[in-house]
Amino acid sequence: MEIRSTTDEDLDLFVDTVHTAFGLFPETPIAGGGRWWSALEMDRGLLALAADGRPMGTAAAYSFELTLPGRALVPVAGVTGVGVLPSHRRRGVLSALMRRQLAEVRARGEFLSVLLASEAPIYGRFGYGPATFTGRLTVPRHRAAFAAPRATGPDSGADSGADTGSVEVLRRAECGEILEQVYDRYRRAQPGALSRPHRWWATRAGQSPVSPAPRYIAVHRDADGVADGYASYSLGGDPSTLTVDETIATEDAVFTALARFVLGHDLVSRVVFRHVPPAHPLRWQLADLRAGEVGEDSDWLWVRLLDVPRALAARGWCTDGELVLDVDDPFLDEHGRYLLTVRDGKAVCVPTDRQPDLSSDVRDLSSLYLGGIAPSTLVRAGHVRAHHPGAAALADALFRTERAPHCLHWF
Fold first, then answer.
1. Domain match, 56 and 105 both
2. 85 belongs to an annotated ligand binding site
3. Which residues are catalytic?
4. Does residue 179 share a domain with residue 272?
């Protein structure tokens, strides 16, 4: 088996191979109408070739920025286009591609790799762990009344007051620049969010609202007329359903204003919000708590740490403290023990020979990294070992974040 890097001349061959691996055809419409391969970076692609030179597997990566807790922006490899032909599975092709890809990611100086897993059992053995989750919220329109906010007074929160902005409806083709700018501001403030490079918007790659599929866009503007949020939506189905592809807002009040707008749409029997973050307050804002039906609660962004000290030092922290982590990386045959010291929101992580507080596989540390999963949860699940009674609580306090991580970019 030979694994080689791809060039621009390999685009058609790469696309045909990965589609064959999934039993599809390149002309099959992608959900939402976009051609995802128009954003491929062919200098980051890999082809696995059989002895006769024919391709039997693929892997690729995008160059993204990931927002960490504390709003640090770091470069990451966004793994995509991974597939092995049905005729060549169970021969080590996927493992060889993953090992080569991780080596190239490290060579570029990136210490994190991320992906969306088509099947949950596949990528854990390569060191990836689910780190963000997303869900769907369905609200019947006849039960969509909002409750009056009960918190009052100067300390009730900046987002609890009445919205002073406005909502304007545009067609997708009219507001590409607005979407790009609003999304970029949003992703810089949201832990777990990925950048959408200009190439994605320019080529209309991916899913709505990036893709050319027709969508209406509800654009929210603040009191000064500056766009600060949007909801991408379409109508269809029987009963008539309004589906919101994504709602982008950096402030809760803006999200609420956009939710009120779509829930008040005429000739609609129900509204489906896709990509709602876990524990989002929208259900609690409804007068009838049971009106919001939660569904499709699913993992989304999977993370893989490639340099534990660099990764832990890069993110922000809410609590001071020390933690000794013993980390095993079976796929790369690596092992390390590290002392994490946090002071004033900054961390230093160095090798140590002290006794560990927690022992973890790299996949589980990767799941904990963005703060969306409490270490005690994985201790109770039997995946992370706590070496003394207070270890899990200490780790919970350290890894806690002020804002839960969330990612809605499809790649």
1. yes
2. no
3. 123, 411
4. yes
Q: 9 and 99: one domain?
A: yes
Q: How many domains in the chain?
A: 3
**Is 95 assigned a ligand-binding role in the annotation?**
yes
Determine the Cα angle at 65 with ends 63 and 71, to 5°. 175
Examine residue 127 and state whether it is found in any structural domain, yes or no. no
Task: Give the model's pLDDT for residue 164.
Answer: 87
User: Which of 141-155, 166-180, 362-376, 381-395 has the least mean pLDDT?
Assistant: 141-155
Query: Distance between CA atoms of 104 and 110, rounded to whole angstroms?
Result: 9
Does 283 share its domain with 227?
Answer: yes
Was 11 annotated as part of a binding site? no
Distance CA 30, CA 38 (A): 12
Residues 245 and 154 reside in one and the same domain: yes
Q: Looking at the structure, do residues 178 and 38 belong to the same domain, yes or no?
A: no
Is residue 83 a contact partner of residue 90, using CB atoms and an 8 Å limit?
no
Check pLDDT > 90 for residue 167. yes
Nearest-10 Cα torsion for 364, 370, 374, 380? -10
Tokens at 110, concatenated: 């990136």
Q: Contact 275/246 with Cβ under 8 angstroms? A: yes
Question: Does residue 159 register a pLDDT over 50?
Answer: no
Residue 341: the pLDDT is: 98
CATH classification of the domain holding 93 = 3.40.630.30
Q: Does one domain contain both 76 and 94?
A: yes
Q: How does pLDDT run across 285-332, given as a tens digit for each residue?
A: 999 999 999 998 899 999 999 999 999 999 999 999 999 999 999 999
Structural domain including 8 reads 2-110
Does the pTM exceed 0.85? yes
Is residue 29 one of the residues assigned to a domain? yes
Residue in the block written with tokens 């270890």: 391
Q: Binding residue per annotation — 125?
A: no
Q: Is 91 annotated for ligand binding? A: yes
DSSP 289: G
How far apart CA 188 and CA 107 sit, in angstroms, is 26
Examine residue 126 and state whether it is found in any structural domain, yes or no: no
Whether residues 149 and 179 share a domain: the answer is yes
Q: What is the mean pLDDT of the chain?
A: 95
Does 108 belong to an annotated binding site? no
321-329 and 358-361 beta bridge pairing: parallel
Asked whether residue 83 is marked as a ligand-binding residue, the answer is: yes
Show the tokens assigned to 284. Answer: 């609690």
Q: What average pLDDT does range 374-380 have in this prediction?
A: 98
